Amino acid sequence: MGTEKILELKNITKLYPGVRALDNVSLDIYKGEIHAIMGENGAGKSTLIKIIGGAVQPSEGKITVNGKSFSSFTSSVASENGIGVIYQEFNLVPSLSVAENVCLGNKLGHKVKKDKKQMKAVTDNVLKNLGLTIDAGIMVSKLSTGQQQMVEIAKQMVKSVKILILDEPTASLSLAETRNLLDMVRQLRDKGVTILYISHRLDEVFEIADRVSVFRDGKYIETREMKETTRKDLIRLMVGREIGDEYPKRTTKPGEEVVLEVKALSGQGDKNITFSLHKGEILGVAGLVGAGRTEMAKMLYGYLQKEAGEIWIHGRQCQISSPQKAISMGIGLIPEDRKREGVFIDYPIDWNIPIMSVRKMSKGLFPDKKKMQKLVNAYIDKLAIATPSPKQVVRNLSGGNQQKVVLAKTLAAEADILIMDEPTRGIDVGTKQEIYRLMNELVAQGKSIIMISSEMEEVMGVSDRILIFYEGEIMGVVDRDHFDQNLIMARASGIKEEL
Amino acid sequence: MRKISLGDFLKEYMAWVILFVVLALFSFTPNFLSLTNFINMLNQNAYVIIASLGVAFLMMAGEIDLSVGYMMSLCSIMSGILIVQKGVPVFPAILIVLVLGICLSVLNNFLSTILKLGRFMTTVATMSMYQGASYVISKSVSIKGFPDSFKAIGQMYVGMVPLPVIIMLVLLIICSILMGKTYFGQYVYALGGNADAARLAGIHVNAMRYIISALAGFLIALSSIMLTARIGSAHATTGPGTEFTAITGILLGGISIRGGEGKMSSVFAGVMITSILTNGMQLAGLDTYYQFIAKGAIMLLAIGIDVYNLNSRTRVKKAGEKNA
């Protein structure tokens, strides 16, 4: 990696009605580097890559590629100059083959009479260069998310892209797929491709990036050499203030009392799940996406039906046949898919928070308005939900605040066993910390938490014990004293042997 | 205290605004603005509004029912057979017919639940079944000769106000309170807003759907009884078409096809708009068949407004995400 500039942004500003999405941003990208772009939600990362990809025109400023500057930088200018963007949502046609997708938008794919042989040859060649073993003839819909991501990359490579922009490429990938992707990104760099890597996963960025630029509130903050940066530095730059430990220390220890005991639970692809949860404990559940963790959570909550097994709560066996039953037993679920399952997104905060407890607060059919208002205000205060008014519609809140509304609604139903499924997914670093702190407070009050998370750092940072899932079974249980990233990763990938 | 922009105001009270515009337009017709004409219009539409309240419960919960018209037809025939042909006293006969209405509506819900099919398709099928049953049972003959005690339900006046108008207003108030002030109403909106989230929030979604269906069936049967009593005879053609006016009126009232929003009071305004327009077309001497075309156009307009509202909301959302 030299210091030859391949891409220069000068004083870029982008205005949306009422929002300054980018504010006077200047940034240099060196040829052949992996340059990470980091920032919290709303920092302007997405706008930045849209401008570089030509999808959006800046309100002010100049873009220079390879020393040439352009008066209007459109997407066709961008691609003529070797810039390729892979957005978070894939642009693949599921019903076409890999070869057809790879050649789509390319001269080969445009011909009326498609030359299938040539398309396949070109695709095979690209796939081989990338070291992939995907069959060019297979339909894209039959591929895993990780493989589809690879097809996206192949699609860019056919156009001999010089600058590749990846927007949160690992957001929906499993651990193994993430490893593959990171390897491939490194390979591409070694072949001379410049990579702009947008992510908010710290470990990934530390692993592959050469330099990192941090954005905050639409402003460029700083660019650093990765080697000279620590996690703490980076978080401080993103959040804009000193935030102390990433995972706040807990002052209480889990008690002896067992609040939940699961015996040989099976169903929905899960087999023979047995574990216990103690009072005041945070039990982490690690594993790959699709390992059966969410299914376990939903069976405990009565949303999905189990086939066999027993659930004991406070020493008594319970039949949990529906969410109502679970709630009455004091179980609360923070679902994985916040927007679809957690909140009623088009209704106000003060409608959402009491929805699970409104019946208890009613005389006959009529809710006690004062009591409800008190409850809502108490939770907005307690969880520090940032909103101009309790009447605010949840859709207009940030992801973190939406999650707090879900939490408030569940806590208001007096849950003392909380199952949190990916509680911090898509939430910025600052709010994440607030959620961790809140979890600490809850267990200090004697509540117990099961936290499912695909982020290794988080699971290890927060939990007292970790259950490791692999294909519907528990592959291991580790105590805090024996937490070891390699061990957990190995178990989650199905490796039983001692390391 | 709460700031309301003009746009919000229009969205919330759109049906009322349109109603007043329509009233203003027709005020040039002679005799239109008289009290008697108003009471008349309310009287003629009382039964439609009552049926619409039932359908509105369904639509707010994200459901629909297209078989309403032939449910009314069956209920009408049943009251004729019980009261005129079998000589059952009026009061128990009415109770039986109300139970029949509840059963038919609950059957629709049962079928769509076990078939895991949307209520749209299910009720297209049951509509045809109810229609057939109605003609078979009545042998396509009109049943006449209801006693005065029955006809009174549709024809009696209290002072200068017809009884149907009073019943309609009372039900309108009850339904408004039910939706606006009780947790039951909140649950209905929850179902319409997001049924998955409602189930995860511990709301008994299936039971709620049965309760809402029963409520709708009750109101639809009552509507049929009032219509039968007003015209004094029962026939298989008594009722069909009501579903069309009801759904148009409900959509104009700002209740979305996707469920989860709207107010009962706007249902009243929405139905009145359609009926005044129909009334106006009749006064203008427009041929019945042209009226069908016009009614279809009004419904399309109502759907258009609904879809526009939904889209503008997601547009706002997308613009918001752009900045993320």
Structural commentary:
The complex is a heterodimer of chains A (499) and B (324). Chain A is of the alpha/beta class. Chain A is built from 18 helices and 22 strands. Chain A has helices at residues 45-52, 75-80, 98-102, 107-110, 116-129, 145-158, 175-190, 202-208, 231-239, 293-300, 323-328, 338-342, 349-352, 369-382, 399-412, 429-444, 456-462, 485-492, and strands spanning 5-16, 19-30, 34-38, 60-65, 68-69, 83-86, 163-167, 194-198, 211-216, 219-225, 258-267, 270-278, 282-287, 308-313, 316-318, 331-334, 362-363, 366-367, 417-421, 448-452, 465-470, 473-479. A 6-stranded mixed sheet of chain A has the order 6-7-8-3-9-10, with helices on both faces. In chain A, α5 packs across α6. Chain A is globular, with a radius of gyration of 25 Å. Chain B is mostly helical. Chain B has a domain at 34-239. Chain B is 76% helix and 2% strand. In chain B, the strands form 2 sheets. Chain B has a two-stranded antiparallel ribbon with strand order 1-4. Chain B has a two-stranded antiparallel sheet with strand order 2-3. In chain B, α3 (68-85) packs parallel to α5 (119-138), α6 (148-155) crosses α10 and α7 (163-181) packs across α8. Chain B is globular and about 55 Å long. Residues 315-324 of chain B have low confidence and may be disordered.
Task: Characterize this entry briefly.
The complex is a heterodimer of chains A (499) and B (324). Chain A has helices spanning 45-52, 75-80, 98-102, 107-110, 116-129, 145-158, 175-190, 202-208, 231-239, 293-300, 323-328, 338-342, 349-352, 369-382, 399-412, 429-444, 456-462, 485-492; strands at 5-16, 19-30, 34-38, 60-65, 68-69, 83-86, 163-167, 194-198, 211-216, 219-225, 258-267, 270-278, 282-287, 308-313, 316-318, 331-334, 362-363, 366-367, 417-421, 448-452, 465-470, 473-479.
